[in-house]
Amino acid sequence: MATWIWILLIMVALVGGMFGGFFISRKYMEKYLKDNPPINEEQLRQMMFQMGQKPSQKKLNQMMNSMKNQSGK
């Protein structure tokens, strides 16, 4: 086989692998984050209790909104 055919096959395999890997890893991360959300309100409440603070619902809402805004950027 000619050398240019091997080079073409390698390039096609490389590009196909990059696209395939990207979409597979993206799908995996979407599923992982859906199954294991980063943090929820109850976890935040427990962290604040461990730090010696007694959180009010207003403070929890503010912190959750702040975290959502940070993750959205």
Explained architecture:
With 73 residues, the chain is an all-alpha fold. The protein folds into two domains: 1-36; 39-73. Helix content is 81%, strand content 0%. It contains three helices and no strands. The protein has helices at residues 3-35, 41-50, 57-72. The longest helix has 33 residues, at 3-35. The protein starts with a helix and ends with a helix. The model has no long low-confidence stretch (mean pLDDT 89).
List the helices and strands and how they pair.
Elements: H1 3-35, H2 41-50, H3 57-72
Order of helices and strands: HHH
The global form is rod-shaped
Strand content: under 5%
Tally of extended strands? 0
Q: What is the structural class? A: mainly alpha
Could you list some keywords that capture this structure?
73 residues, mainly alpha, 2 domains, 0% strand
